[in-house]
Amino acid sequence: MNFRRVSSNISYILYVIPSFLLFSTFVFYPMIRTGYLSMHTTNFQGAPTAYVGFEHFRYLIEDRNFRESMKATFLFVLYTVPSTVLISLFLALLANEKLKGIQLFRTFFSSTLGMSVAASSVIWMFMYNPSIGIVNKLVVALGGQERQWLLDPDTALIAVAVATVWMNIGFAFLILLGGLQNIDVTLYESAKIAGVSKIYQLWRITLPLLSPTLFFIVTVSLIHAFQTFGQIDILTKGGPVNTTTVLVYSIYREAFVNYNFGFASAQAVVLFFIVLVITILQFALVERKVHYQ
Amino acid sequence: MKIELVNVSKIYNHNVKAVSDVNVTIESGEFFVLLGPSGCGKSTLLRMIAGLEEITEGILKINDVVVNDLEPSQRNLSMVFQNYALYPHLTVEENILFGLYKKKKMNKLEKIKKCKDVAEMMGLGQFLKRKPRELSGGQRQRVALARAVVAEDPICLMDEPLSNLDAKLRTSMRKEIKQLQKRLGITMIYVTHDQVEAMTMGDRIMVLKNGLMQQVGKPLEIYNVPSNTFVASFIGAPPMNLIPARIEGQQIIFDGSYRLKLPNKFLQKGRNNRNVIVGIRPENLEIVTDDSNNSAFLVKYREVLGTETIVSVELGTQEVYIRCNGQIDIPTGKRIGIKVNLGSICVFDQETGSLINQPTGVVNERAEIIPNSLYDSIESK
Predict the structure, then answer these.
(1) CA dist B60 → B18, B202, B284 (Å)
(2) What is the structure's pLDDT at B269?
(3) Chain A partners of B149 at a C-beta cutoff of 8 Å?
(4) Which of B38, B60, B179, B285 could form a disulfide with B322 if both were Cys (CB 3.0 to 4.6 A apart)?
(5) Mean pLDDT score of chain A
């Protein structure tokens, strides 16, 4: 009897071991190491040299660059997340109609999902190019003034945000369309017979029933937006005058340009807690309005 | 309200005919059942009446007004779906209120009052604040019914509303729906594949197969005088025995080796001397256990159901079901004779399957099926 229990316990452990090893190597160990490093000064190789306690964190509060990068991060999240979700929702609602050739539009709308951040960034770099880019051409055609979109402190963050929204729409669109298609068509047919208007259907049937999917995509987009790096690195390198230095880019610069690994780790810990708190708040405040079936 | 279908067809992709040339007039206050196996087009037909599917050809009239191009909400009807189509995120009350959406003139208080009345009538009074998932299948069904009848539309369409319920609940809901329909005086069009539902609820039944109308009539008409072999086999459990045979000289010859003598007035003109399919309901056959020489049929199987016993015997190569009253104890392998209620025999054309000789309806006229070898000697007596 005892032997059987022991052997079944061993088999449970055996099942868990592979993923436990993977997670330990690539998630748990780096997390712990980051926390450890955030309390140390390091040499250029990243090896800890001296214990400094919470000194890095205290310095962060005073650091003007860090405050700027916090501001850039939150603005970036504010610019990208709501617009990504709203635009994708709009496209998904359009693409959910049963029309001829709708498959083609579904493919178009989700196609940015298939493009790497690097490739998309390069495309946008050309579009934002002051002399040959299509953005300036369009602006001029509409009677506006040419701008150096990525070099102007007033527009750089918005320009990167627009490119990011474009990149993220594909994924959000696909998830939202999936959510819409999961809604039972007879609910709409029943509404049609009851004479319910389209707007009221959207408000009273579609959005509530889509709420689990919306909640998922908002949460994922938020986390994703806080972790943005690639497009910043390619399009602006954090400039001009740090207006696009979001947290992850700031961490990267601290660690791999200034070789200040301890300070970078402290920022990473701060980022981790920001994302954690926001996600907890999301679940605590927003999830109550979600209708799971 | 009267509903009239004139040559109504549904054609998908220019060539697939889901419903072909349906012609029928459904009278005001009638309980009309569309019956057929899955894929026969009955749901499509219902959805065309509802306005959820376009009518490819033909005319649909409600109270003598052509409504082909009207929106579903303008057709004065309500509908109950197979899966109930309740809004999972809304309470029972809010779900029922949805049925009153188009009553723009009614104020909110009146609507709530109406909703409460209907809920009370359906026995849902204490569940008004609950969500559908907190209700049992039968209660959800009632909510769907309540939502359909709350607006008092003169027409109600139902698409297999009972198929998700267990057998016992189905029986009681059958009665409830029928009573509700009669009490409210609505015109009901009810889709089902369950012949028992059709027989028990319908004032009239339309049997469909492959989008084609097979027969329209009162339940007993359809049961007793099916217009073809499909209807005959679809209705009744066990179904009507359909036995290939030949009619020759006022006799039915089964399998070349058994004979049944017919009364003189049985066959209509021109029905003699041809190959046919003979249709006899199991309850119109009778077992004879007098161990005479006529006991030529082997009992293959029997099911004792309490109030009745179903016995299956071999008639040549054909298996034939006999329904006997009460609990009859016949061992399998025993040889028995078979007596036929002659007034109930239907004769179908062997090629087309359509009814060519109606049952006479004469009661208490019976004859035994006799093996060929004994026939002449009995005749000569």
Answers:
(1) 17, 21, 41
(2) 76
(3) none
(4) B285
(5) 91
Q: How far apart are CA A213 and CA A241, in angstroms?
A: 38
Residue type at position B103: K
B238 preceded by cis ω (within 30°)?
yes
CA B275/CA B29 separation, integer angstroms? 43
Residue B325's closest CA among B291, B289, B287, B298? Answer: B287
Length of chain B: 381
Q: Is A27 helix (H, G, I), strand (E, B) or coil?
A: helix
* Residue ranges of domains in chain A: 38-289
ipTM of the complex model:
0.84
Distance separating alpha carbons of residues A37 and B70, to the nearest angstrom: 72
**Nearest beta carbon to residue B98 from set A189, A194, A208:** A194
Total-model pTM: 0.83
**pLDDT band (50, 70, 90) for residue B377:** low
How far away is chain A from the Cα of B6, in angstroms, using its nearest Cα? 23
B187 & B241 share domain: no
CA distance B258 to chain A (A): 55
Q: How far apart are CA A97 and CA A102, in angstroms?
A: 8
Q: Round to whole Å and give the CA distance between B171 and B236.
A: 17
Q: Rounded to whole angstroms, how far apart are CA atoms B161 and B83?
A: 7
User: How far does the CA of residue A209 sit from the closest CA of chain B (Å)?
Assistant: 7
Give the model's confidence band at B102: pLDDT under 50 very low, under 70 low, under 90 confident, else very high. confident
**Chain B CB contacts of A208 below 8 Å:** 89
The answer to whether the CB atoms of A293 and B51 lie below 8 A apart is no
Query: Which residue segment(s) compose the domain that B98 sits in?
Result: 3-230
Peptide bond into B37 cis (omega under 30): no
Q: Helices A261-281 and A247-256 meet at what angle, rounded to 10?
A: 160
Per-residue pLDDT tens over the stretch A181-211 = 999 999 999 999 999 999 999 999 999 999 9
Q: Do B69 and B194 have their domain in common?
A: yes
pLDDT on residue B225: 95
The CATH code of domain A38-289 reads: 1.10.3720.10
Are B190 and B281 in a shared domain? Answer: no
Same domain? For B216 and B238 the reply is no
Q: Which residue, among B150, B90, B87, has the nearest Cα to B119 in the 3D structure?
A: B150
Name the token pair of A122: 């390069």
CB within 8 Å: B81 and A193: no
d(CA B119, CA B128): 8
Report whether A28 contacts A21 (CB < 8 A): no
Q: Which domain CATH number covers B89?
A: 3.40.50.300
* CB atoms A193 and B78 under 8 Å: yes
- Written as one string, the DSSP assignment of A75-132 is HHHHHHHHHHHHHHHHHHHHHTS--TTHHHHHHHHHGGGGS-HHHHHHHHHHHH-TTT
Residue B250, domain CATH: 2.40.50.140
HSE-CB at B277 with a 13 A cutoff on CA atoms is 22
Could you report the per-residue pLDDT of B203-212, keeping only the tens digit for each? 999 999 999 9
Residue B313 has pLDDT above 80, yes or no: yes
Compute the distance between CA of residue B161 and CA of residue B180 in angstroms, rounded to an integer. Answer: 14
Report d(CA A96, CA A83) in Å as an integer: 20
Interface of A with B (CB under 8 A): 184, 186-187, 189-196, 200, 204-205, 208-209, 291, 293
